[in-house]
Amino acid sequence: MMELVCPAGTPASLRAAVDAGAHAIYCGFADDTNARNFPGLNFSRREMAEGIAYAHARGAKVLIAINTFPRAGEMELWHRAVSDAATLGADAAILADLGLIAHAAERHPSLRRHLSVQAAAANPDVINFYASAFDVKRVVLPRVLSVEEIATINRDIDVETEVFVFGGLCVMAEGRCSLSSYISGKSPNMNGVCSPASHVSYVEEGGDLAARLGGYTIHRTPAQAPAPYPTLCKGCFKVGARTGYVFEDPASLDASQLLPALSRAGVTALKIEGRQRSRAYVAQVVRNFRQAVEALAEGREVPVGALARLTEGQAATAGAYNKIWR
Amino acid sequence: MQLTVGPIQGFWDAGLWSAFYERLAETPGISRVVLGELVCSKRLPFYQTRLPDAVAQLLAGGKDVALTSLALITPLKRERRMAAELAAMELEVEVNDLTMLAYLPEGARFSVGPLVNVYNEGTLAVLQRRGAVGVCLPPELSAASVQRICAATDMPVEVWGWGRLPLAISGRCYHARYHDRAKDQCQFVCAEDPDGLAVDTLDDQQFLAINGLQTLSGQCANMAHHLPSLRQAGVASLRLSPQTTGFFEVIDLFADLTSGRIDAEEFCAKALPHAPGGAFCDGFLDGPTGVAWSGARGEVRTQPAGTP
User: Fold this and answer.
1) Fewer beta carbons under 10 A from the terminal one: N or C of chain B?
2) What is the pLDDT of residues A277-316, one digit of tens each?
3) Is A70–B119 a contact, with Cβ atoms under 8 angstroms apart?
4) B183–A240 CB contact, under 8 Å
5) ipTM of the complex
């Protein structure tokens, strides 16, 4: 069965995801070391220890994301996170920074290392490099690849691959994007946030609701219509005489219909995005995906559309996976 | 402070490309040139046969020369072949995707480009152990990070000095998407916008620019005001990013600025007409945002047109 890797932003979400059938939980410490560094989210050391005990008692793994890029001169914070992940008995650390990966391999060789999507390792050669140089055991693939490309990669590597199947969709190579800090000063790489809520404003103007990020208008919707969150790369902009979603429509990722293809492509683990999501949301998505991977493992058909209502009225897309980007 | 000319980010007409490097080879003030295809592997065949001549001219002109890798190497055969061919050349490679580390022979000297995530001294030390001899830091870094990295390394450190900033790279082509074409049938439409195609907000705020798979800043980065602090930090060179018009004027102005013949104010006034997008930014260094422009602060400096 493909492994289901599920998000937990809080201890309650971790327990909910484990109870709903997650094979593994990924989560982070409550500081700059993880890429979902939102107020009120994430785990203290004590909560992490309790979460690991809860998951292990029920046969689930805990993967700790330490996947931002350490600030120059302040690497100690990230080194401590890796050391604590090892001490607390995490099943793996999810890392992005080359220096931090080298540090972890040297100082904590027994802590399993996964390469974060933030490292944007998009081809077999670079994955083999990380495997041979730092004994990385699994790579989370960027969301810019098609299923065929994922199959190509799996043919040429020996490490496991994990792919995102549900939730937020990055259209840029992850970890290679500074759009958010360009207009807000805060970025996924440095601060663990993208298009941060602290920089969002909604203003009613002439019957429209303008959604702005750092003062830049990302959307304009009629006042009564639902206004999508102003995620920068899903905004509506002007290019020449045309107006539209220049980078991507305000859609979220749903690759549930591609699970058989991803399985054939040799994928080991399926990842659900959303450490910032509610416990109820996480539980429901996990339950649905657990049914889907069980059906697939038993040769039954994957249930259709069970997850549609969870995209919360937003359009869903299979992103690059089904090759429409080509 | 030395000056480096970075790789051309846009897709230029081959004749213009050759003329550019021919003139650059004879232009004083530039000590190093990085060339080759950074953004899209489909562009390279249009000028690949011209590369050896351009390299020879630049070397004859006394420039150090390096060839860049792609910014994002995907599993495509042609991209992996490009990486292998690049690693096999006799010239120094500027690594802009860590994939090159898999191809470069053990002990080969290489430089690290601005699209590799070097956010700290630990990462740079790992790269140095593998053969790195110089680095151009990511434009997103703060002045404090630049300072700390300079203090911790004996390698020459370069920072982005001029030009539209490389903010993101994708597997998707935004030029093709804009023209309702599939990426594989793009008909090289990005050639229509060799300096990037402006993306403005619905409220007409100048914002970004698209360049095929790449997203650039709408504003032109200009680090003139930071020259003293960058020097003090120990930065060895500034990177100037090529543009189709006015670039040689910009080089001359930078030569005047770094040699003290003009000050930053005079530089900015004279360089503004040549800035792609017609506005400056330099905020990644000292905040609060990347798009911020230090010249818009204080009572003496005036805000350039188009700056929000």
Assistant:
1) N
2) 999 999 999 999 999 999 999 999 887 666 666 665 567 8
3) yes
4) no
5) 0.94
Take residue A24 and report the two structure tokens written for it: 């593994």
- Convert the pLDDT of each residue in B86-141 to its tens digit: 999 989 999 999 999 999 998 899 999 999 999 999 999 999 999 999 999 999 99
pLDDT per residue over B149-172, tens digit each?
999 999 999 999 999 999 999 999
Of A103, A119, A177, the CB nearest to B168: A177
Q: Where in chain A is the domain with CATH 3.20.20.70?
A: 3-171+251-322
Q: Cα B263 to chain center, whole Å?
A: 24
- Backbone dihedral region for residue A277 (phi beyond 0: left; psi -120 to 50: alpha; all else: beta): beta
Mean pLDDT (chain A) is: 93
With an 8 Å Cβ cutoff, is B285 touching chain A? no
- Nearest-Cα distance to chain B for A22, in Å, is 30
Contact B201 A237 (CB under 8 A): yes
B128 CB near a chain A CB, below 8 Å? Answer: no
Tens of pLDDT, residue by residue over B179-219, are 999 999 999 999 999 999 999 999 999 999 999 999 999 99
Question: What pLDDT score was predicted for residue A224?
Answer: 85
Q: How confident is the model at residue B302 (pLDDT cuts 50, 70, 90)?
A: very low
How close does chain B come to A223, measured CA to CA in Å? 16
Amino acid letter for position A205: E
Alpha-carbon distance of A208 to A205, in angstroms, equals: 5
CB contact under 8 A, A123 and B80: yes
pLDDT for residue B301 is more than 50: no
List CB contacts (< 8 A) between B183 and chain A: 325-326
Write the class of the CATH domain A3-171+251-322.
Answer: alpha beta
Q: Number of CB pairs < 8 Å for A and B?
A: 220
- Please answer yes or no on whether A238 and B199 come within 8 Å at the CB atom: yes
Q: By the 8 A CB rule, do B160 and B139 touch? A: yes
Residue A168: name the closest of A27, A317, A278, A326 by CA: A317
Write out pLDDT tens, residues B10-60: 999 999 999 999 999 999 999 999 999 999 999 999 999 999 999 999 999
User: Which tokens in the block code for residue A11?
Assistant: 């201890």
Choose among A207, A202, A183: nearest CA to A193.
A183
Domains of chain B (ranges plus CATH)? Answer: 2-167+218-276 (3.20.20.70)
Give the gap in angstroms from C-alpha A179 to the nearest C-alpha of chain B.
Answer: 6
pLDDT (mean) for A66-91? 97
Say if residues A183 and A262 touch (Cβ distance below 8 Å).
no
CA separation for the pair A81, A29 (Å, rounded):
7
Q: What's the full length of chain B, in residues? A: 308
pLDDT value for A308:
60
How far apart are the C-alpha atoms of B6 and B115, rounded to whole Å? 12
Closest-CA residue to B147 (of B139, B161, B155, B157): B157
Residue B72 is nearest to which of A122, A178, A242, comparing CB atoms?
A122
